[in-house]
Amino acid sequence: MASTRTQARREPYRGVVVGAPVTIPYRRYSTNTAHWWVGRAVREVIQRTGLRSADIDGLSLSSFTVGPDTAIGLTQHLGLSPRWLDHVPLGGASGVVALRRAARAVQCGDAEFVLCVAGDTNQVDSFRRMLSTFSRFAQDAVYPYGSGGPNASFALITRNYMRHYGATREDFGKICVAQRANALRFPHALMKKPLTLDEYLSARAISDPIHLFDCVMPCAGAEAFLVCREDAARSLRLPVARLLATVERHNAFPEDPIQYRGGWAMDVSELYAMAGVTAEDVDFVETYDDYPVICMMQIEDLGFCAKGESPEFIRSHSLTVDGSFPHNTSGGQLSVGQAGAAGGFLGLVEALRQLTGNVLGAEVPDAKVGLVSGFGMVTYDRGLASGAALLSGGRA
Amino acid sequence: MTEPLSRPKRKNPLKKTPVPLLPQGTRSRTALGLTAAAAEGRFQLQVCVDCVMVVYPPRDACPRCLSPRLPYRDVANGGTLLAETTIRISTDVYFRERMPWRIGTVALDVGPSIVAHLHGDLREGERTRLQLKLDKSGQAIVMALPAADTPNMADDPQWRELTCDPKYRRVLITDGRTAVAQALAGALSEAGASAIFVGVADPWKPFPGEEKLRRIERVEIVPLDLTDTTSVNECAGEFAARVDILINTAEHVRTGGIIDRKGLTIAREELEIRYFGLTRLAQAFGPVLRGRGADGVNSAAAFVNLLSVYALANWPAYGAFSATEAACLSASLSLRAELRQGGVKVLNVFFGPLETEWYQAVQPPKVAPASLAREVVRALQQGLEDLFVGDIAEDIRARLAVNPKALERELGS
């Protein structure tokens, strides 16, 4: 059993840095393809860094709508000749997973510059079509049950969490309202109007207890970043963040009858031990916010409070950029939009901006350490993939 | 508590009949094991042969021991409803026009968590029993019911979507001269059918049981000769738009195999009544049934075939008869696929020799017409697709599953 075996000590990500955070402004619907969005993000990274296409010797792609292509098709499409290639079809966990794989490739010399990119298009009917064919379990055991999509699946998880831990709609609302406040200062956010708690509470029900402002808006967009060695970044004069630690886990706690925790709970002590920091040292947190209940689970499972105490934690903190617990500083997917797999990059790219002094919106004052968390892939009744990364500012 | 259905008003002929829409019916091959169980009203899930884990959703490897041996087995259907949601926005047109729709997560006592449709009388935190049902697409879904029956529970809209309940529906019984047909008329009347049209060829000719039949509430004798295409078409012209459940009770039971019969007269008559009769009914009534699958409380719901169980395995003592029944069975499977596009079920009822004059010399056990009728009504109320009535039918089916060749020899000896 893995749990009883002595774990080998993990090698730190010595000399590995991350930079060139790129967001291609989202659009609600797009007539362009995923390839177009991915191409724009790749071009932006290359222009930003002063590299040439030929210098990009590693490519990692995440996309739901790039089919029938995968990463390999994109090499020819974009005119890249990488010697290291990865396709990470892990939705909301894509960013963290792409980062940790790329970091090892760079550290071991398998590639010098790994460009990680996530992009998706959103056509009028593409979301519905994706839902019915998302996974075999979804096709056999979820979609025929009202076809409510992730709203219905997360409604069940949310309902159970509320019943067990006393979370209220006001608690979820506080998360959403704070993120909207952050988003109003972030130019690329699709949501431009302020949101009050009253508006949140009186919004129409989608799948009880999920209401309109608990849901992300599917859209088109792309996000990207570059992973390389510190010396290479220095010669490019690229502002970068250092990678302190990462964890990844899939299908954690399969015996839980309904999801109330994620894989982070299995790996959180390793995350902080590897980084040599504690939860108190973290200056801001980018959780994966497909629904606010998942933010609460991450706050617990990543060690900011005990299981079941997130509602109280939320009540006793302010969650805006300038608050006591800066959270989803660009507004998160709830206010910026969910551009498919790029939603799994959003928090990571925003964290890189915060840590490299490159912010587009509001800046977390004096941010040195950021925590980014990913979550995704509800193939049946729960999110299977989880991951997290701790990063520190290059200026630290 | 379930609001009892009220009797549907007369249809406004100027109103558009809604096109029958279906929920998504695509399933993995492994998941079709659930459909097989649902068709007969059993609650079966995959059970690992090697570690006895109960597995859901359907898989091809056991998540505990990786065994590939995961047959479907009857399992206990009790559980607890952990969480529920009322879906108000759906991406699917079928559900969109049926919003709001409740689903929930049920922790089954035997292990897995199951996302299920919820009966209106079931609440979060309560005990529940699960049933496998066929939805309008013809594929299996799981429905969670209250632990104990509640008043009017069959009238719950999410439940009625899965059943072919005769309550407030109009039924056509195609041949009223048989004992089974007369028993069915009574059982359907008791089950709340709002009209029971009973077809009789040459109604001016009296027949045994006629008086009793006419006295049953809401029964109307209508002229219908299944051997006459014109008669069937005329009957459909007058009644098809008002028939929600069609039950073909035509029978023609004669002894003898293939060699012993002289000439084709009896064989032709058999086919005329049974196979061509079924074909005429399907052609005359099928299109209207298929178009009315979503027509409100009294939407078209079912086409019922009464079949000898010897349709499945020839009994040479009734060899030619068995062959005709097999032809009807085969046709019914085509009919099932054709009517499914309208969300209308084909219920095939298999039974052994009946307690009637045509099986006079056959040893018991035999099926009493009244119990056959009762079982048919129950199957409609449950929304089943395959029903085996009586010990002989169950026995033939079990032996067929174990060793078809052995059964062939045994029936022929």
Describe this structure in words.
The complex is a heterodimer of chains A (396) and B (413). Chain A has 396 residues and is an alpha/beta fold. Chain A has a domain at 16-125 and 218-236: 3-Layer(aba) Sandwich (Peroxisomal Thiolase, Chain A, domain 1). In chain A, 36% of the residues lie in helices and 20% in strands. Chain A contains 14 helices and eleven strands. Chain A has helices spanning 34-49, 71-78, 94-107, 126-132, 136-141, 149-165, 169-183, 197-202, 230-236, 264-275, 292-301, 310-315, 332-336, 343-355; strands spanning 16-27, 58-62, 84-87, 114-120, 205-207, 210-211, 220-229, 240-250, 284-286, 369-378, 383-393. A nine-stranded mixed sheet of chain A has the order 3-2-4-7-1-8-11-10-9, sandwiched between helices. Chain A has a two-stranded antiparallel sheet with strand order 5-6. The radius of gyration of chain A is 20 Å and the shape is globular. Chain B has 413 residues and is α/β, with parallel strands linked by helices. Chain B folds into two domains: 32-154, no CATH class; 170-411, Rossmann fold. Helix content of chain B is 31%, strand content 21%. In chain B, the strands form three sheets. In chain B, strands 11-10-9-12-13-14-15 form a seven-stranded parallel sheet, sandwiched between helices. In chain B, α4 crosses α10 (369-382), α7 (265-273) packs parallel to α8 (275-291) and α8 packs parallel to α9 (319-340). The longest helix of chain B has 22 residues, at 319-340. Chain B is globular. The model of chain B has no long low-confidence stretch (mean pLDDT 97). At the A-B interface, α4, α5, α6 and β5 of A face β4, β5 and β6 of B.
